[in-house]
Amino acid sequence: MKKIFHSIVAILTVVPALVSCDNFLETEPVDKLVPNTFFQSEKDLELYSNSFYQRQVPGGLAVVQSDEMGEFTSKNQSNNFIAGAYSSVDEGAWNWSDLRNINYFLENFDNEAIPQEARDHYEGIARFFRAYFYFEMVKRYGDVPWYSKTLATDDPDLYKPRDPREAVIDSMLMDLDFATSHIRDTKDNVSSLVTRQVAYGFKSRVCLFEGTYRKYHEELGLQGTANELLQEAAVAAKAVIDAQQFQLHNTGSPSTDYRELFISENPVSEEVMWAVVYNNALKRWHNITWKFNSATYGNRWGLNKQFVNTYLMTDGSRFTERQGYDTIQFVREMENRDFRLAQTVRSLGYTRLDGTPAPPNFGYTYTGYHILKFSLDDSRLDGISESFNSIPLMRYAEVLLNYAEAKAELGEFDAGIWEQTIAPLRERAGVDPRIPATVDSYLQSVYFPNISDKFLLEIRRERGIELCYEGLRYDDLLRWKKGDLLEMPWEGIYVSGLNEPMDLDGNGTPDVAFVETVPDNQVAGVIYFAVDGTNSVLTEGDHGHIVWRANEDRQFPEKKYLHPISNTDLVLNPDLGQNPGWE
């Protein structure tokens, strides 16, 4: 009897436990996002879409630093891709997490309880970010697998071959067409959100990249489709222009208007369409000022003389047509130039926030063209990560340049489009905006020997100057098939002679001296730059342009227009195949 009693007690104990276990197994986890309990309201869609920004929008430094790959930048040394024995072993493995995050949303968001307009808006946001993800992939690898679904671990598509770049671009444009049709057309005055106009602007960027890439990369055999993409680029850019939500920031102060776009805490939303927003009160900071003003923390970036030569005089004439332009010393070189030059590199009369004169510092740059754009004036920020200026990701100025270039590549550029695009950019910069009468022989000989269209040359000049250090230059070189420019010497300012102290800010006192050996008795306030004959040389031996890393072997053969597929990915899926030249 006692044994039976114990059995009954055991059964009464176990059965409820089993029932409880069943309920537990059917209960959704309270700390996880699951479709049955999430995606119930527009607020849920908004909350999830915030993850696209958090995961995919680059930090401010990453935006600026990507122009380190541009030909106009000198730095400590080139990376292994440009001046080393780079191979598929050095290439990092692909990461599809951001794409999976987007595709998961697209598979689960479509709840009929949420108004259709809201669902369309957030679907547009998700598809914008999918195109944003794939744009980076296509630029880097060309052909890549296109995935529009989440993949289980046993999905055979994990091991499929890459899809052709034209198929991937077509899919991206379908996403962007949906985005430009359905994302709400409400201007974001904080410039932190993707809006319909941002989607149009991004579409113009994608189509201009791919259209020119196909035009100049004959090896692809896709030239017949280039003009269609260039038309798409022009139409998308024109849509932004016609919407009239944005305009150039021009208060009539050419010496400050341009730089205000890059040092303001709140994005200048009349022109900045999309930005990485920082905020001092919220302690959302970055370290760009520190990077540009440190001998060790950054790479001592500087512009190269060849690029600085492309800045026009304020009267619209070409600096490179002045007699003896190549041997003019720094102070005279900076005089009467396009006002953007003095807002991009330290120039005459620049002072820090406390009024301290701050000429170009050869402790922080190797060429003398010390980057100023994006740096704040408070010298306290030179050693801490507390810069709080917002960093533009897309500006109306780029849209104007996209429109101008697409029309020029199509052979449809004329004086009217000049007045609508290039002229207002030069007017803001204090430069006479008249149309040049002739082709610029300097631009043609040093940069673009195969271009004879004066308008296209001027558009490329304007794009380089206006968008300098905004993360677009390397992509421009790729699509123009001008990777050979990355092999050019890193020339700096003209030095009249060794051991001759030079004034760099126009106040009549010396700031730098180029020497073979740093003297024991140094002049206060003078930085002594040792020309060692190996890493640094003067082009004429004891005078001439300072050239940094003259001993570096920079190479950009055909294969480098694409990166290799990593060894890791090829081991996992041999059907991906390797890019040409990297086998």
Automatic annotation (TrEMBL):
TM helices/strands, residue ranges: none
Domain RagB/SusD intervals: 295-582
Record-linked InterPro entries: SusD-like_N (IPR033985), SusD_RagB_dom (IPR012944), TPR-like_helical_dom_sf (IPR011990)
Homology family: Belongs to the SusD family.
Domain SusD-like N-terminal: 24-208
PROSITE patterns linked: PROKAR_LIPOPROTEIN
Source organism, top-level taxon: Bacteria
Keywords carried by this UniProt record: Cell outer membrane, Membrane, Signal
Secreted keyword on record: no
The name this protein goes by in its record: RagB/SusD family nutrient uptake outer membrane protein
Keyword ATP-binding (UniProt): no
Localization annotation: Cell outer membrane
